[in-house]
Amino acid sequence: MPSSNLSAKIKKEVAKRANNLCEYCLANSEYAFHTFPVDHILPISLDGQDTLDNLANSCQFCNNSKYNKTHCLDHLTNELVPLFNPRKDKWLTHFLWNESKSDIIGITSIGRATVHCLKVNRPEATNLRKVLAAFGVHPPF
Prior knowledge:
The chain is of the alpha+beta class.
């Protein structure tokens, strides 16, 4: 499998563009246990490139869950749909927060498939969001 060696400058630029948030689940790198990797929206293994328009800031969990996927099943429509693309899609078009701001709700087929495929509402994430909301630092927008 081809590999990618992104420069520190590119990684920093990707993180800055995303305001240090995971562009999928909006986790803040300031409160993360792991350094955020850079995700290739179209994976290198599927001929994706190291260009800024193909790179997204991603938490370790979203990055690992996405792996080399570009599509996932929307369980409501039973259709295979593209995953959320941070370079082309607007987050608020596809997702919203539940009342307690702990869970991400997919409101489109892309949103639902992304929530399911990337497991963005795993207990560790929802618990952290509740605590951060109580301190007024979540959600980020």
